[in-house]
Design goal:
- By secondary structure, the protein is mainly alpha-helical.
- It has one domain (about 15-395).
- It is about 65% helix and about 0% strand.
- The protein has 17 helices and no strands.
- Helix 8 (about 180-195) packs parallel to helix 10 and helix 8 packs parallel to helix 17 (about 380-395).
- The longest helix is centred in the last third of the chain and has 31 residues, at about 320-350.
- The two termini are about 30 Å apart.
- It is found in: Membrane.
- InterPro entries: O-antigen_ligase-rel_domated (IPR007016), WaaL-like (IPR051533).
């Protein structure tokens, strides 16, 4: 059995990938394109689809994957038991989608999951063999893209000061404003580690990302960033030296959010939404109903993305918890297969982490923590960022990563 994730030696250097030099800007600026194409309170059906499926992000993912056709040799070969588990999960996902109450949305979402998978594999292969596609270039493009996105958001808010503007649902790029929180949490993770490593500008960007998320009323971003760093603190000794810098970013982000709210108020969809008595999200009730429904089909579930069909009165698309999301979709069998794959991949990631790629790990961890109480591992953009970051960490490991789950060495 193959225990390695090393790609085929037939993959050449950067010159074998004519699009490699364009990938980082495409990835970094796809959200900006999404913003610019979905502005307005009264959008068309086409714009609604652009928002719901984050079409510019998907186009980039597909383009990245297609750029490797005929050049990648063969994809990484995992151990046989992992291949069997993956094949079984894919078969289960397709079968349950075809038999879902609303098969059309289920098939679309499963297809998108396959696109994410192909994108992650392509990024891994490119980073492993291409000399042009450095992580620093990707980091800069993702950061600049986020800053442009956020500046556009603030400018848009300044131009739309109507009292009846419902920011939670008419924010450009997202059908629900919490999507910005996922984006901000990932970028904050990227920049936070750079700040811990000594880059002052990254510290400012991390604080700004937190501030902007709080300004929009995306309540989970602060918790996700804190939880992501806490996880890194516990798992990786080299992350423990940055506690004071981390706390400084949190404090600065909170103060900046207050300033943003004073200058560009969004009604109740700002920091006051964090503490408002009328802001109960009803998550506990949703979780209880989801578990009850999942237990009606305990083994194989209801199919991907059936939450809105099963609970039309909730007006949300997912149960705000990744475990319940998986259980509802694929039952205990699917959840078991996901657990097997996650543990195997988690060990690979754990061994691959070093101080050079830790920024991407922290971004992925923030998204993972967010998924415990929201839909960050359901919506297209945040899942795309998660796949990207995991692939980058795996591809930029230092030294031999074979063997069991060993602790990474500092430095």
């Amino acid at each position: 059995m193959h225990e390695s994730l090393e790609p085929s030696p037939r993959i050449g250097p950067a010159k074998s990938f004519p699009l490699a030099s364009l990938l980082a800007p495409a990835i970094g600026f796809a959200p900006v394109i999404l913003f610019l194409t979905t502005m307005g309170q009264h959008i068309s059906a086409f714009q609604f689809i652009l928002k719901t499926l984050a079409i510019p992000v998907l186009i980039v993912e597909i383009g990245v994957s297609l750029s490797l056709l005929g050049r990648a040799g063969h994809i990484p070969v995992p151990p046989r038991w992992i291949s069997i588990s993956m094949a079984a999960l894919m078969l289960l996902a397709v079968a349950t989608s075809l038999n879902a109450k609303d098969p059309s949305i289920s098939i679309i979402k499963i297809s998108i999951l396959f696109i994410h998978l192909g994108f992650g594999i392509a990024i891994y292969l490119i980073y492993t063999r291409s000399r042009m596609f450095y992580t620093e270039i990707l980091y800069k493009n993702m950061t600049i893209g986020f800053l442009i996105f956020t500046i556009l958001s603030i400018s848009y808010a300044l131009l739309h000061r109507e009292d009846d503007y419902v920011w939670a649902y008419y924010f450009p790029a997202y059908n629900q404003i919490r999507g910005y929180g996922y984006y901000a949490a990932a970028i904050a993770g990227l920049c936070l580690w750079k700040w811990i490593a000594g880059d002052k500008i990254s510290g400012v960007v991390a604080a700004f990302a937190l501030a902007a998320a709080l300004w929009t009323g995306s309540r989970g971003t602060l918790a996700a960033v804190a939880g992501g760093y806490a996880g890194a603190f516990l798992l990786f000794p080299f992350a423990r030296r940055g506690v004071l810098r981390f706390l400084a970013v949190l404090g600065a982000g909170i103060l900046l959010s207050v300033a943003l709210t004073v200058l560009v108020p969004l009604g109740r969809f700002g920091p006051q939404r964090l503490i408002g008595d009328d802001s109960d999200s009803g998550r506990i009730a949703i979780w209880g109903r989801t578990l009850e429904m999942a237990l009606q089909r305990p083994w194989f579930g209801w199919g991907e993305s059936q939450f809105a069909t099963l609970f039309p009165d909730t007006h949300v698309a997912q149960p705000h918890n990744v475990f319940l999301q998986i259980l509802l979709s694929w039952g205990f069998v699917g959840a078991g297969l996901v657990a097997i794959l996650s543990i195997w991949l988690g060990c690979k990631v754990y061994r691959a982490v070093n101080e050079q790629n830790a920024a991407f790990l922290l971004a992925a961890m923030n998204i993972a923590v967010f998924s415990l109480f929201d839909g960050s591992l359901y919506h297209v953009q945040s899942v795309s960022i998660f796949a990207l970051c995991i692939a980058v960490v795996l591809a930029t490991k230092s030294g031999d990563a074979a063997g069991g789950c060993r602790a990474p060495q500092p430095g």
